[in-house]
Fold this protein.
Amino acid sequence: MSATATAATIPPTRPASSRPASVAAAPRAAAGLALTERVAGQEQLLPAPLLGLLVSLHRAIEPERRARLAARRERQAAFDAGALPDFRADTVAIREANWKVAPIPRALQDRRVEITGPTDPKMVINALNSGAQCYMADFEDSTAPTWRNLLAGQRALAAAVDGTLTFEADNGKQYRLRPYEERAVLIVRPRGWHLDEKHVRVDGQPIAGGLFDMAVFAWHNARTLMANDRGPYFYLPKLQSMEEAALWETALSQVEQALGLPHGQMKVTVLIETLPAVFEMDEILYALRDRIVGLNCGRWDYIFSYLKTFRSHADRVLPERGQVTMTQPFLKAYSELLIRTCHRRGAHAMGGMAAQIPIANDPEANAQALARVRADKLREVTAGHDGTWVAHPALIPVARAIFDEHMPTPNQHHVLRQDVQVGRDGLIRPSGGSITLAGFGNNVEVCVRYMAAWLDGNGCVPIHWLMEDAATAEIARAQLWQWLHHSDPRGCQADGSPVYLDDGTTIDFDLFERTLAALPGRLGDTIHLPGGARIGEATALLDQLTRACQFIDFLTLPAYARLS
């Protein structure tokens, strides 16, 4: 079966009248474009023809991007009024038809262990040398998007692709890439549709951050990667609908056209990390069917999206985040439906992140943490996942051992999971559990410490032996808002149904204030913490976000305005 559907009754991915205009051949002069900041070497990284491509892309994509973001707001307003997400009635034909995605390239056939992380040179070298099958270089949740960080990341990736990247640490240690055939396959995650790139303005508007990340990487690396049968490959984040997937299809297709690449050369994996998207997995695969190779269980963002979607639903308040594991019924249903959907369509069903990092100087605690990783990876591989994520190189052998034992083939598309019968109610079932004082305090601490580091330019932070990024911090922040606003009479969602700690204490803003006030004592000397100098600013920002009656969709939106 080709990537083209067999049923003529399948509707187009969106009405033809709403499709963005074609990107014209990139002009050499970037009329209408303004760069609001400059760093050394910028002109070589952003030459005039590339800037011209960015102008053309923005003009073609931006109207539809704005329409898609407006559609998100409209949909969320319906959820706030009591509506529940569900499978679409207008796309039944797509879900019922017999079609498959395009064949998967050889380099992406086996993805049993992938490592993720930011794009600084040391991380890029270590990740590519790590022994993982793939490395997801992350411009989104684990990168604070300062202009310097973004350009340094693009420069590091370009040097990695051509094999010249090196790094020398302050202590003189040298980092170099292993031979080409020993390196992980590079996959780049651009930012989501909701994020602007304020340093690049076209016709007075900021360009979409994801367009900038994707186009700059493709411009510098696509031909080399294609010549080596390595892509380019991308992870697409935060999608909420098939229309948003179709918009990426338009952007990617037209960059291919501008660069003289064959259609479908740039392959993608989509992260299913929003609650609305889980109801449109078939549709997202279909919209990207000429280039998509799989879906990924982006579990942390997915939990955050559950909280955000149901922020006004008092009957769907979740317990503390440490108890919201993949064994919770709504998360188990999500992962198993993803496996069934992907394997039916010939696509990978990638598992989620193990955020643990080695616990130094405590062998017993470290052994317990590794046991949790093994149990999580065993659950994934026996359920039918084709691969998994880790945040630290030390976890690669742990994850690989589990997948090697239970998945002797490169993937397990043959595991069709026809036993999985998941309906709407199973995907949104509330979780059982409790909220402890320690869990409440941990949420506050993680939010403050992560935001302080992010404001200081660091988007990936180890806290209590877990690697925290924007997604995990968002869970903590959203839970604080939901607990307080439903429980405290002063909250904007209070309905007479208080939320209690497990000891019977009512969660209210007084408890929040006491926890914030006690945080300096809990942290001690912050001088050695990432972003320690900005702890006060981060504390004030968390207080502002938590008290606001309107839930802010992403903490990185107001924080971006403060990012130097």
